[in-house]
Amino acid sequence: MVGQWGKEDEEKVVIRFYNDRKDRVEMERVEKSCEIGNDQTFLFTHTLGDPICRIRNTPLFTMLVAEVRNKLVGSIQGSVKPVKFQDKSVTVGYVLALRVMPSYRRHGIGSILVTKLEEWFMSHNADYAYMATQKDNEASLGLFVGTLGYVIFRNPAILVNPVNPRGLKLPSDIEIRKLKVKEAASWYRKHVVSKTDFFPDDIVKILRNKLNIGTWVAYYKNKDTIKSWAILSAWNSSKVFKLRIGKAPLSYVFLTKVCKFFGRFLPFLGLTALPDLFTPFGFYFIYGVHAEGPLRGKLVRALCEHVSNMAASDDGGACKVVVVEVDGESNGSSNDSVRRCVPHWKMLSCEDDTWCIKPLKREENTTGLSDFTEMLLSSKSRSLFVDPRDV
């Protein structure tokens, strides 16, 4: 695969599949240069020696690299999977980890990488391509939305909560029961799939994955209580990659120092000290959060705290935070909507994540982009299922 990029001497950029034996060392150099060159990035990924660790658990995946003069200057990753979207079974391609070295940016290499990945998606019968970025990432949105024809369709919130190493006391009136894989899959298909977009058809494979910690349902012990329940699953991302804050806001640095100084007093005040996020740390990812009933809010919080307690005792405290991604806009005015009830620290969370999507095939019942946009607007009444393999 060969493309043209905008240097004066019109050098060729070669796009090819990643070769682990040949490219691993150079990929580390590309990743490092992108970390240094991006002033807006402050959260770095440590892949634990495996550049494609974040997509390796998906059903079908690939990584493309860009070469100029036999030098690796960029890369992109992608995966393909079947999901439910607008009550239809479709195949989607996920665009992840677009990287171009700073000195080679703004010359079209990013566009070439995305275009070639889309071609790979279509060769595997993908109906849509989608990606996630931050709302204030002008370069990314300019490329995907401004140049490549993607449409913004969701703004979920990434909620982050520090793990309390001492553990949290759970409400005594709530029962939490772990479900077996078949039972959990049945529960999701019965209660969640009809109300959710991007629900994975291979949910059983996710629940059986070695990284999946389990699925729990919570309900009130008192049988006379108005019926309410909540369900969620947890995924151990620490086994795949770790994170590190590299360029933190000054306020975070200051607060961290204060928390360390007063750390021994915080437990008595009922507070959680800020964890050390400047060294690589692991995290648990909560997904499949769904709740019903008038008293569901307390159940969601109890389940999240239950997962946090497991993270605190896992791997000698290597898991420092619990992460949940939910719709940025509540589907109702209830004070106990899922987003409101998930425990999180606002200063660590991101409420402006942006998902963009692009049709790769023309739908038989649509005539153009306007129809596609209308379809996306109608889907906002449904919740968004975030696949843990996409994190």
Characterize the structure shown.
By secondary structure, this protein is an alpha+beta fold. It has two domains: 160 residues, 3-Layer(aba) Sandwich (Aminopeptidase), CATH 3.40.630; 162 residues, Aminopeptidase (3-Layer(aba) Sandwich), CATH 3.40.630. The protein is built from nine helices and 19 strands. The strands form four sheets. Strands 1, 2, 4, 5, 6, 7, 8, 12 and 18 form a nine-stranded mixed beta sheet that branches. A six-stranded mixed beta sheet has the order 9-17-16-14-13-10. The protein has a two-stranded antiparallel ribbon with strand order 3-15. The longest helix has 18 residues. It comes from Eruca vesicaria subsp. sativa. This is N-acetyltransferase domain-containing protein. It holds the Pfam family Acetyltransf_1. InterPro entries: Acyl_CoA_acyltransferase (IPR016181), GNAT_dom (IPR000182), Plant_NAT (IPR052810).
Task: Note the main attributes of this structure.
Aminopeptidase; 391 residues; six-stranded mixed sheet; nine-stranded mixed sheet; globular; alpha+beta; 2 domains
TL;DR?
This protein has 391 residues and is of the alpha+beta class.
Mean pLDDT across residues:
83
Structural class: alpha+beta
List the helices and strands in order.
EEHEEEEHEHEEEHEEHEEEHEHEHEHE
Largest sheet: 9 strands, mixed
The count of helical stretches stands at 9
Provide the CATH topology of the largest domain: Aminopeptidase
Overall form: globular
Kindly estimate the percentage of residues that lie in beta strands according to DSSP. 25-35%
Please give the share of residues in helix. Answer: 25-40%
Span between N and C termini?
Answer: 28 Å
Q: Uncertain spans, ≥5 residues at pLDDT below 50? A: 36-41, 330-336
Q: How many β-strands, per DSSP?
A: 19
From the coordinates shown, what is the CATH architecture of the largest domain? 3-Layer(aba) Sandwich
CATH class designation of the largest domain: Alpha Beta
Number of domains: 2
